[in-house]
Amino acid sequence: MRIVFATGNAGKMREIRDILADVDAEVYSLKDLGLKSEAPETGESFAENARIKVMEIYDILKDRDEMKDTIIMADDSGLCIDYLDGAPGVHSARFMGHDTDYKIKNAAILEKLEGVADEERGAGFVCHISAVTEDGTVYDAEGEMRGRIASEPKGKEGFGYDPIFFLPEFNRTSGELSEEEKNKISHRGKVLRMMKEILYKKGIISFK
Ligand code: ITT
What we know:
Blueprint: E1 2-5, H1 10-19, E2 26-29, H2 46-63, E3 70-81, H3 102-112, E4 122-132, E5 138-149, E6 165-167, E7 172-173, H4 179-185, H5 187-201
Parallel strand pairs: 1-2, 1-3
Antiparallel strand pairs: 3-4, 4-5, 5-6, 6-7
Bound molecules: inosine 5'-triphosphate.
């Protein structure tokens, strides 16, 4: 069995490899296969965008007759800030430009929330994962990790918005958690475990 994870985000891919380590399958990134995702993420929901990403790669591998014993998965995720009516949400990667340094993006978010009290700084990291199997059946799972927007960026772990995502129960940002700690509680960890359970119950994957 082989799982191809359709992401170009190295931070996501690191976490995904760790969370999938107990599955009896070889895990490949797009880079490993020399592929690149090019389909525009035009969906209005995480679910729509995750589906766009998996189907793009499914169509390529199906055309090449390379879907045998293969599952393709994709993650669409983002930071939804209550005070900003859920923004940047599905636009999280493109907020202020896809390649803009996260130091700049994070500083801009902190500025938008300047003077806002802790109780109003609630936010969630949402993740939607779609998986498509050889015969074209698509499976979906979605979940969230709640926290709040920190008062200042902290931590060098994780990626993206992690330094400004404060978890009161840890008294740290997700940028200060080790990968193991983050994967236990994160949106991605939760949803990928849900997906493993779905595929296991269908007899599609097994564990090592
Ligand atoms: P792929 O589409 O290739 O997977 P991407 O980075 O463009 O990569 P998304 O469209 O799903 O992925 O955007 C997700 C963005 O949301 C990501 O770039 C981060 O800015 C943010 N994000 C999602 N999960 C995160 C996490 O665990 N920690 C920090 N930021 C996260």
